[in-house]
Amino acid sequence: MFFKVIYSLDKAVEKITTGVLVFCVLGMLLMTVSNIVLRWFDSHVLWFEPAVRYLVFISAFLGGTIATGKRTHIGIDLIGKYFETKKMWKAHRWVGRIIDIISFVVLIYLTKACIDFVAEEAKYGRADVFIGIHAKYLASIIPIGFGLICYRFFNNFVLSFSEKYQFKIENDEGEGE
Is position 165 within any domain? Predict the structure, then answer.
């Protein structure tokens, strides 16, 4: 039951993240193409370019969140690949668990540092950075993004102990341990 709840929450986060990512990409595309077309008529919308920059920033964190959940994020995993080639699946899973928990701990510290940064932006940041939005709200993209990735690493770690919901690489047949 516990693993099913964690898995369901993880899938909900993935669906929401994917939906927001699609919205961001479509928004970036629409604004960029609109500005290109408007330039043909010696016009443009002034706030489209900064909006696209912030949408790219949001998209990077959302993409990282999705990649983390699917375990397709960038990583150097020499030990894991060694165990994979030797078909030592239990050892391979433990390497994945260790990577997940270390990444989770590092991201907790990064998220905390980013929350402190947002607090500084709230005190000293400009009130009108982009179309009247205070800098603290734009800076809050960073801890939210790191927090989502941190959450996905934690879920990967927890679900790796479930036979039903763990990320499958290959069948455990022919265990080389």
Answer: no
**What's the structural domain count of the chain?**
1
The closest alpha carbon to 149, from 91, 110, 122, 96, belongs to 110
Report the C-alpha gap between 57 and 140 in whole angstroms: 11
The answer to whether residue 174 sits within a structural domain is: no
Question: What is the separation, in whole angstroms, between the first and last Cα of the chain?
Answer: 30
Nearest-angstrom CA–CA distance, 4 and 123 = 42
Per the CB < 8 A criterion, the answer to whether 156 and 13 are in contact is no
pTM: 0.83
Please classify residue 2 by burial: count the beta carbons closer than 10 Å to its beta carbon, then call 0-12 exposed, 13-18 middle and 19+ buried.
Answer: exposed
What's the token pair of residue 61?
């964190």
- pLDDT for 165 equals 67
Residue count (the chain): 177
Is residue 164 in a domain?
Answer: no
172 occurs within a structural domain:
no
In one-letter notation, the amino acid at residue 17 is T
For 80-119, what is each residue's pLDDT tens digit?
778 778 888 788 888 888 889 999 999 999 999 999 999 9
Domain span including residue 139:
2-159
